[in-house]
C-alpha cells in the first residue's frame, strides 16, 4: 500500500522496539508502550537524524496517512484542509520580507501536512507525526517564487485527492511530493 518494502518496515519497527516505544509479545503482536520520556528521546533522535533518513520515514508515514485520509476524512477534515490549503498557498505566493514571514510560511506548510495526517483518524500516526514536527519545520525551505508555483500545484493536488476520497490518487500525489523533496 505504501510502497515501503517489508524490510524497511521491519527495520523501522525494530528501531522502535529498541527505543522502547514498541513491545513485541510472542504470539500476540506488537504494542505501543511509549511514555513522555521515550517521546522526548525520540524527538531528540529525529532532530539529530540525517535528512535522508527523516525523509524516508516521512515518506512511509505520509503516503500511508494520505491514503487513509482519503478513505476516512469527514466534513470537518474537508473544511479544515481547504482552509489550511488556502492559507498556505496565499502565504507561499509572496516573497517573505522578514524572518517572521518565513516562519509563518513554514508553519502553514507543516500545518497542512499535519492536517492530512489528522484526517487519517489514526491517533498513533498523528502522535508519531507530532514528534517529527520540529524536524520537519527545520527542513522546510522557502524557495524562490517561480519554483513555489509547482509546490502550490502539488499541495493542491494532494488535498484535492484526499477531499475526493480517492486513495490511489492521494498516494500518487504524496509520492510526487516526496520525490520532489528528494531532488
Automatic annotation (TrEMBL):
Keywords: DNA-binding, Transcription, Transcription regulation. Residues 1-35 form the HTH gntR-type domain. The keyword tRNA processing does not apply. The keyword Disulfide bond does not apply. One of its GO terms (molecular function) is DNA binding. It comes from the Bacteria. InterPro entries: GntR_C (IPR011711), TF_FadR/GntR_C (IPR008920), Tscrpt_reg_HTH_GntR (IPR000524), WH-like_DNA-bd_sf (IPR036388), WH_DNA-bd_sf (IPR036390). PANTHER family: REGULATORY PROTEIN GNTR HTH, TRANSCRIPTIONAL REGULATOR, GNTR FAMILY. This is Transcriptional regulator, GntR. It comes from Mycobacterium montefiorense.
